[in-house]
Design goal:
With 184 residues, the protein is of the alpha+beta class. The protein has 2 domains: 2-72; 78-181, no CATH class. The chain is 31% helix and 28% strand. It is built from 4 helices and 6 strands. It has a 3-stranded antiparallel beta sheet with strand order 1-2-3, with helices on one face. It has a 3-stranded antiparallel beta sheet with strand order 4-5-6, with helices on one face. Strand 4 (136-138) and strand 5 (142-148) form a beta hairpin. The chain is flat.
């Protein structure tokens, strides 16, 4: 988990060592929430606050098999190769389009300039094009896929978080881990 959290900065570093290094480099807060812990699956998300010249806060999502201890990528939980993958893409495209439309309104109303608009729009398009459904959270009856399109700090209020939620009932035919449909 530490390697995933620290973007594999030093894979040979111990948990204590990695967290001490991160703390000395500006991490001021780590919190976590267990969103699912049943049927041999643990899903949690961590909130991280990092302060240097300015503070940032973000969430990372982790999913593990408590039987094997191994990380669970989304394609081991659901089949995203067919119709569900297309639905995820459509839902994601719709949310990005909403943010692009809102950005256009800000330009039209004079809240941002043309140069800022174009820079942010270019980044939205890049994020949309490069989207991979990797960051997800399992909850009691829902799978949530999350995508954050990071922008320069000066545009922080415009950073879109794309969230797509699907109930297990809604996606049951795509579930690879059928026990998610079972009650606790």
């Amino acid at each position: 988990m530490v390697n995933r959290l620290t973007s594999n900065e030093d894979q040979n570093e111990s948990l204590d060592s990695a967290l001490i290094k991160w703390t000395s480099n500006g991490i001021v807060d780590l919190d976590f929430e267990v969103t699912y812990n049943n049927h041999g699956i643990l899903s949690l998300n961590m909130g991280i606050e990092w302060c240097n010249a300015y503070c940032d806060y973000w969430r990372e999502y982790f999913n593990y098999s408590t039987n094997s201890g191994k990380w669970l990528p989304i394609d081991e939980v659901i089949d995203i190769s067919g119709e569900l993958g297309l639905k995820i893409q459509r839902d994601k495209d719709s949310q990005y389009q909403y943010h692009i439309d809102e950005l256009g309104k800000l330009l039209k109303e004079g809240e941002i300039g043309k140069e800022e608009h174009d820079e942010i729009l270019e980044r939205f398009v890049e994020c949309d094009r490069n989207f991979m459904p990797e960051s997800f959270s399992i909850q009691n009856d829902t799978l949530k896929i999350v995508e954050t399109c990071w922008l320069h700090h000066s545009f922080k209020p415009l950073i879109p978080t794309i969230e797509m939620k699907y109930t297990f009932e809604e996606i049951q035919s795509y579930l690879k881990i059928r026990r998610l449909l079972s009650p606790d």
